[in-house]
């Protein structure tokens, strides 16, 4: 595969979607063939799964059921969209990927789903493939949640199922992402996201150039 796979991770409202689109514009200006996508919901079936996963009551399904649906979405996403695009040489930017499953369903739920279960599901659905680079946007959970709720107020369908979990959940989630980054420093970069959109974009561009040899 000649393309690259870059994932954006972090808690609610940290700026993933905003920064992903700015990076896409930057790469396009540099004549790189790049697409953006997201999890859950990067495909047609995925959008239906997304609706089930991110709207409605937070307790409508448990951590295990949720994990299986996220992995169904991921498998379809990889086989139908990410890998075919990469095989054509495209760069793929994904708004969330497998680290979110570890952060939410393992760390966030205080280890209700065993890590070995998540590792096995990853192996089944994704195999040995990994992102070339993962950008983790780190922010105070209340700052992020406030941004997220302000955004959701203007949306017809409220994608706030996870946002509605308590602060403690979001703190665990944040620590989870930092733990993941600590375990895989060669793949992950943590950036403080509590700064202006433009400043954070400049930092991301620098990281991408350095890590992926664009210079
Ligand atoms: N650096 C920033 N400073 C202030 N506001 C920001 C910043 N980055 C993004 N925002 C705003 O905060 C809101 C959330 O940003 P965005 O949607 O990019 O975050 P996200 O991580 O994708 O959130 P979600 O987890 O809800 O998908 C948006 O309204 C966006 O315009
Ligand atoms: Mg988003």
Textual characterization of the structure:
With 215 residues, the protein is of the alpha/beta class. The chain has a single domain, classed as Rossmann fold, CATH 3.40.50.300. It is built from eight helices and five strands. A five-stranded parallel sheet has the order 2-3-1-4-5, sandwiched between helices. Helix 1 (16-29) crosses helix 8. The chain is globular. The structure holds adenosine-5'-triphosphate and magnesium ion. Adenosine-5'-triphosphate (ATP) binds at residues 10, 12-18, 147-148, 151, 196-197, 200.
Structural domain tally = 1
Order of helices and strands: EHEHHEHHEHHEH
Q: How many extended strands?
A: 5
Biggest sheet architecture? 5 strands, parallel
Q: What compounds sit in this structure?
A: adenosine-5'-triphosphate, magnesium ion
How do the strands and helices of this protein lay out in sequence?
Blueprint: E1 5-10, H1 16-29, E2 34-38, H2 44-54, H3 63-87, E3 91-95, H4 98-108, H5 115-126, E4 133-138, H6 141-153, H7 167-183, E5 188-192, H8 197-211
Parallel strand pairs: 1-3, 1-4, 2-3, 4-5
Helix pairs in contact: 1-8, 2-3, 3-5, 4-7
The structure holds adenosine-5'-triphosphate and magnesium ion (MG).
How would you concisely characterize the structure shown here?
This protein has 215 residues and is α/β, with parallel strands linked by helices. The protein is built from eight helices and five strands.
């Amino acid at each position: 595969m000649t393309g690259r796979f870059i994932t954006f991770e972090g808690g609610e409202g940290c700026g993933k979607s905003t920064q992903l689109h700015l990076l896409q514009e930057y790469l396009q200006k540099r004549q790189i063939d790049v697409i953006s996508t997201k999890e859950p919901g990067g495909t047609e079936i995925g959008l239906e799964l997304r609706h089930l996963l991110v709207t409605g009551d937070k307790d409508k399904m448990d951590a295990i059921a949720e994990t299986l649906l996220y992995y169904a979405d991921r498998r379809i996403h990889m086989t139908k969209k990410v890998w075919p695009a990469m095989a054509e040489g495209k760069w793929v930017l994904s708004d969330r990927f497998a680290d979110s499953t570890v952060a939410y369903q393992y760390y966030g739920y205080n280890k209700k789903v065993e890590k070995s279960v998540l590792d096995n599901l990853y192996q089944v659905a994704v195999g040995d493939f990994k992102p070339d680079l993962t950008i983790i946007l780190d922010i105070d959970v209340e700052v992020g949640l406030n941004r997220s709720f302000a955004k959701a107020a203007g949306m017809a369908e409220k994608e706030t199922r996870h946002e509605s979990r308590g602060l403690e959940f979001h703190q665990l989630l944040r620590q989870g992402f930092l733990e993941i980054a600590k375990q895989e420093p060669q793949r992950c970069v943590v950036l403080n996201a509590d700064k202006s959109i433009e400043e954070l974009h400049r930092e991301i561009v620098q990281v991408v150039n350095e890590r992926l040899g664009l210079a």
